[in-house]
Structures are given as structure tokens and as C-alpha cells.
Amino acid sequence: RGEDSFVRAQLAGKPFIWHIYPQDENLHHVKLQAFLNIYKAATPAMQAMMLAWNGAFTEQADMATRWPAFAAELPQLADLSMEWQQQLLANGDLTSNLLKFAASMQQ
Description:
By secondary structure, the protein is mainly α. The chain has one domain (3-106). Helix content is 66%, strand content 0%. Helix 3 packs antiparallel against helix 4. The protein is globular. It starts with a helix and ends with a helix.
């Protein structure tokens, strides 16, 4: 649920549903929507499932219909999740990136 688990879920390269910690004034819904806006593995069914799972819909979440729609997309989501993982890994790790940045500042 926390950010560390959230990052590990993305780096695993597997489909996941983020159960985000609730925040005052529903700020967690803003954070969730911001993530879904950039998450390339988020199909419409996955987006609907994550929003419903986190109470971000104004209407009552119908999990009986959302879950099967999400499950039906799992093969596609598996491929998209692996692509997202590779995109994240291509960014490099924090330590190496900080060392490169520090070296560039000394030049």
C-alpha cells in the first residue's frame, strides 16, 4: 500500500492494483489519477478497477462487473506491465544517476 510497495509492484513487471493509503480531502485520489495518466500499462478496465478499489468513483463501485473486465485483460496487462518495467529500468538507478549529475556539475 505504501510508496515502497507501489514502486516494487511496478518494478516486478506484473499487473497490479494499487491500494493507496487514504489521505485527507481525498488527495490520494488525485495521486492515483496522476499515476494512471502516465502509466502506460493502464487499460480502461485496469483504470476503472483501481479507481473503484480506492473509492474514487462517485457512483457505487460494481466490483462484480469490474473484476471480470480486469481479469479478461490480464494477458494484455502482463505484456504492458513488462514494457513499463523496461521503461523504468532504462531510467537507471538513483545512485548512478546522482553520481553522473555530480560529475557533470564539476565540469
